[in-house]
Amino acid sequence: MTRRSRRSLAATLVALIGVIGCVLVATSAVQLLLGERPVLDYDAVAAWLHATRWEALPVAIGGGLLAAVGLVVLLAAVLPGRALVLPLSGGSSRVVKAGASRRSITGSLRSAAESADGVESAKVRLRRGSVTAKVRGGRLAADDVATQVRQAMEDQLDRIAPARRPRVKVRVRSTA
Prior knowledge:
The chain is an alpha+beta fold and 176 residues long.
């Protein structure tokens, strides 16, 4: 069970642009029906468009921008988002599909890293195939701290039992 993030930003931008266009057209139509001067003057826009040639620079720039925006929105819709819930390996036959949130796994691994001897603070980053811990320690040698943190994080990963076990990387920065 892998739950991925929604593409709400791309959808919101497309919807917002559509709503703005609809509001402009509807406002102009109502103003024309009431006999007032419209916000969006159809005759002026049509005259400008008829006078513009296909080879003109504004047409090329506008077409390029629209193509780029369309490609970005298409890629945002097609490419999968970052996994929010990561699958866990089912230890028993009763548990068919189980998952843990990325935030809870990261917090659990950070807590394990901070519990190692000689660690003052830790920042943990969970990527697709690896977990990186940036640790700040001062009392022990950097190699000893790195070994202890790696062991603590691997023990915690054994308890969590993710379906795909990430590689553990540890970077120690000494404060002493």
